[in-house]
Write a sequence for this structure.
């Protein structure tokens, strides 16, 4: 996590804001440089590349630094920061009203979703079965990451889905279920019911904090976007370790949720991620409020 951000209505000298920007660039380059190298080589990574392929935020956008609303930058070039910034006698600052007018509908929707999610108790009994439902009754050739083998046979994988059941509350995970897996889910989440269903124990709801953070940029500081990215990256690792894929060759030992010990390991990690996501969600809500 980063150091404390500048307080609202802060005025940063050029030396200070350049230090913030350089620190952000150095931080995100640890994630971006390997991804871009793989992309140039045509190499795919089912864990490390997910946040760049599933979400719409491009690497260059993640790398670009914004101070967030209420921060004024002395001796900053308006052309470097874009049309959402305005010059004042104290320096360059984000034109909050300009951004709010353009994003008013999405800002309200995101705020309501985050507040509803934060107000619920965390449910920790899904055991990551959403990834299993995404390969249910598929052959090795049909599964999404078919360059990597399944840990178990398709028949055994399907049997575990049927034995354990599926309790997924996240629409954007549910929509990737195979057709025969959808009736096995306890819920029938839709985009319209997303605000009613999402809860803070869900790995994907906590991973999506990155999506809501970048969609609110430049109203929120880039340090917060990077904090959410960092958490989402770690959550994705658990997501795939608990999946039916065998990624041991990539250095990801499985969390065997088909066993009692594996389910306990998953729940412990899920609880930790829920605890870490809570202050990030609160920071986003505070920025919106």
């Amino acid at each position: 996590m980063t150091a404390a951000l500048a307080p609202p209505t802060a005025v940063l000298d050029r030396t200070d804001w350049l230090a913030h920007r350089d620190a952000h660039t150095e931080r995100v380059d640890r994630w971006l440089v390997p991804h871009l190298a793989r992309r140039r080589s045509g190499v795919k990574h089912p864990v490390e590349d997910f946040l760049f392929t599933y979400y719409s935020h491009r690497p260059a956008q993640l790398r670009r630094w914004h101070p967030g609303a209420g921060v004024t930058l002395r001796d900053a070039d308006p052309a470097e920061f874009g049309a959402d910034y305005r010059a004042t006698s104290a320096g360059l600052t984000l034109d909050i009203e300009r951004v709010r007018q353009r994003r008013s509908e999405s800002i309200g929707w995101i705020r309501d979703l985050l507040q509803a999610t934060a107000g619920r108790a965390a449910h920790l009994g899904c055991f990551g079965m959403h990834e299993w439902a995404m390969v249910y009754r598929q052959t090795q050739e049909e599964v999404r990451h078919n360059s990597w083998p399944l840990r178990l046979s398709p028949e055994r994988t399907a049997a575990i889905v049927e034995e354990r059941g599926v309790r997924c509350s996240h629409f954007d995970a549910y929509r990737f279920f195979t057709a025969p897996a959808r009736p096995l889910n306890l819920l029938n989440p839709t985009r319209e019911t997303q605000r009613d269903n999402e809860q803070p124990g869900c790995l994907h709801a906590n991973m999506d904090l990155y999506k809501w953070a970048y969609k609110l940029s430049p109203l929120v500081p880039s340090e917060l976007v990077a904090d959410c990215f960092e958490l989402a990256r770690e959550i994705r690792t658990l997501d795939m370790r608990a999946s039916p894929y065998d990624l041991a060759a990539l250095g990801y030992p499985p969390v065997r949720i088909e066993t009692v010990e594996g389910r306990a390991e998953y729940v412990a990690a899920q609880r930790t991620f829920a605890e870490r996501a809570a202050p990030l969600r609160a920071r986003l809500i505070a920025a919106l409020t």
